[in-house]
Write a structure and sequence with these properties.
It is a single chain. With about 140 residues, the chain is α+β, with helices and mostly antiparallel strands. The protein has one domain. It is built from 3 helices and 3 strands. Strands 1-2-3 form a 3-stranded antiparallel β-sheet, covered by helices on one side. A hairpin with a 2-residue loop joins strand 1 and strand 2. Helix 1 packs antiparallel against helix 2. It is rod-shaped.
């Protein structure tokens, strides 16, 4: 019997009711956010590697036809880049060496990122002046 003026004692286990559900939902939300970030980082890395391959392919294609003139070489590079989903932003021909920049806008969940762009250069090995002696080692 409960006396008047006295409150009924609450059982301590009633206070924690539902706390585990909130904790599980919070952990699931953190896990989903971490997974989304990991997927975005992976997709960005894959897009960058693809763009590097496109830039190298376009530069090599242009260097192969550099004898047709700078305009023809750059046009060929633009065609190769476009077929691979990128845009040729800049192209310069200096003697037998072609230097270019390609760019691609990311799509899907990465569309909010700025466009990726990479440089590439192709030409005869003996024209490489970045590392003296490298051409001699290659032969």
């Amino acid at each position: 019997m409960i006396r008047p003026g006295r409150r009924r004692r609450r059982d301590d286990s009633d206070r924690d009711s539902g706390a585990a559900s909130i904790l599980v939902l919070a952990c699931a939300a953190v896990l989903a956010a971490a997974t989304a970030v990991a997927v975005e980082v992976g997709l960005t890395a894959a897009a960058r590697h693809h763009l590097a391959a496109v830039a190298d392919q376009a530069a090599l294609a242009a260097a192969a036809v550099v004898d047709s003139g700078p305009a023809g070489a750059c046009h060929h590079a633009a065609t190769v880049a476009k077929r691979n989903g990128a845009d040729l932003v800049n192209c310069a021909v200096t003697g037998p060496v072609v230097t270019l920049r390609v760019q691609v806008r990311l799509r899907g969940p990465l569309a909010w990122l700025p466009a990726l762009s990479l440089n590439s250069r192709a030409g005869p090995a003996e024209t490489n002046t970045d590392h003296p002696g490298q051409a001699a080692k290659a032969s």
